[in-house]
Amino acid sequence: MFILRKNLSLFLKNYTKNVSLSVPSKTDNVQCRQTFPSQFCFGNYFSSHAIENPIPENNTIQDENKTSCISQADIEAITKGDKELEHKLKVIILETEVLRQDGKSVPSNEYMTAEIWENMLKLPSRSGRTKYLDFLFRTSKKKHNKLVKKLEKRKTFEEHLANKELSPKSLPIEEHALKYGLLFNNIFIRFNDSTMNNFYNNRLIQAIQFGQKLVIDCGYDQNMTRRENQYTAKQLMLLFADNRYNDDPFDIHYVNINKDSDLTKMFHKYVPTMFDKEFPMNAHEKSYLDLFPKEKLVYLTPHCREEMESFDHDAIYIVGAIVDKVNQAPLSLAKAKRENITMKKFPLDRYLQWGSGSGKSLTINQCVAILLDMKETGDWNYSLRHVPRRKLTDTTTFSNSFKPSYNNSPKSFPSRKKGEWKPKSKVNARIVVKSLYDD
Fold first, then answer.
1. Which of 33, 133, 241, 289 has a Cα-to-Cα distance from 142 of 20 to 30 A?
2. CA 392, 395, 399 angle in degrees (round to 5)?
3. Is the dihedral of CA 27, 32, 35, 37 positive or negative?
4. Is the pLDDT at 249 greater than 90, yes or no?
5. Measuring CA to CA, how many Å separate 70 from each of 109, 117, 140, 389?
6. What is d(CA 53, CA 61) in angstroms, rounded to the nearest whole number?
7. What average pLDDT score do residues 149-165 get?
8. CB under 8 Å to 125, separation ≥6 — which residues?
């Protein structure tokens, strides 16, 4: 196995020096098979079928299953006529085939689109490309399994309808009206997805008119890798959904939007109607300093010292749209200091007991969910239930239900007083109930 890997590495090294930019001809395939054993010949470049099956006219690189990998037109569109990039791309394609033949986690050629090859071209190292291919492999398998389950569910439902004794369409109107149940006479109206979608969008329209402002700063796309931008875009989609499902949503403004950035393009894939005029989403290319008064802005950053003790309904909170898996520099803190904006952080250490080895970072949608609960209840014990349990110790408990109070001061919560709080005795409760009945 070691000799095989060594020969493959030498083969790739020699290929990068001597390979021509054109697709190999039949003669080149013959020379390759004379020089290297059959286990090194793969794809339509150096396969055992290359002599009998010549390269097609459109110069499409294919694998052994004759599945289209990437066409010459896509290569020219990606490289834009740059010969060095075209040479590097073909080497990366060959490298991917080596990993596939070696049994590594590489997605099928049907999943490898031109956009993925363009992303592969931007990765500087081979280890980075290997990790990216492994990520794509797991993602493709998840999508495939989801599609299989969907088809099985559809098939089961069709069999259920076929085996059903009575069909609503086959019954006369009199019998149909007398029979009560699903698909028959029913007092409950079936709501379509479009109806519910319009209902939730109406909440956002009301929030735009009367709701509290919340700013999502999308100006960190250049400080993140492509995978971090993808995670950020997904979290932005989740927080948008959580916000419009809430009874009293925020009026969210996405600022510092760059339409040419990877973050905006990925976010646009999750929400295709985000730039439509009739869609209730506020996306701005301007900064929050140009849209809102500076004295009301409060930047939420975990790197500052001042804690957020209570929720201010007049403030405009800012949440940075950043995932810092690679670059963990305090970018939001530096930005808030540079712009002289008030900074605050969640009181996580005061209310939570963190487990050993767990990070204290929260996702963007979790931060917005905490703010939604704080706006409604003003109780940190209830709002911090969105923190993942895996990050906390087993002794940490949350309040699963909230009882509203007209006084949110610390004195109104008996559990926060000094000493041990004890409930009222059952004897006094019985006396009160008895006196009520006696009257």
1. 241
2. 85
3. negative
4. yes
5. 8, 9, 18, 44
6. 13
7. 84
8. none
| Cβ atoms 310, 346 nearer than 8 A | no
Task: Record the tokens describing residue 107, joined without a space.
Answer: 């997605």
Q: Which helix (H) or strand (E) holds 76?
A: helix 72-79
Q: What DSSP line would sit under 301-350, residue for residue?
A: -TTSS-B--S--TTSEEEEE----SS--S-HHHHHHHHTT-EEEB--HHH
Name the more confident of 76 and 210. 210
Tokens representing 196?
A: 């519910």
3-class secondary-structure state, position 192: coil
Verdict on whether the full-model pTM lies above 0.85: no
Q: Give the 3-state secondary structure of residue 69.
A: strand
Q: How far apart are CA 403 and CA 379, in angstroms?
A: 10
379-423 pLDDT per residue, tens:
898 999 999 888 888 765 655 555 554 444 444 433 333 444 444
Name the strand (E) or helix (H) holding 215: strand 213-217
List all residues 6 or more positions away from 69 whose beta carbon is below 8 Å from its beta carbon.
43, 60, 61, 62, 63, 93, 109, 112
Q: Which amino acid is at 340?
A: N
**CA 50/CA 33 separation, integer angstroms:** 10
Distance, in Å, from the CA atom of 71 to the CA atom of 212, rounded to the nearest integer, reads: 51
Q: Which of 407, 376, 46 is nearest to 211 (CA)?
A: 376
324-to-108, 118, 204, 229, 329 alpha-carbon distances in Å: 30, 23, 30, 10, 8
Check: CB of residue 220 under 8 Å from CB of residue 321: yes
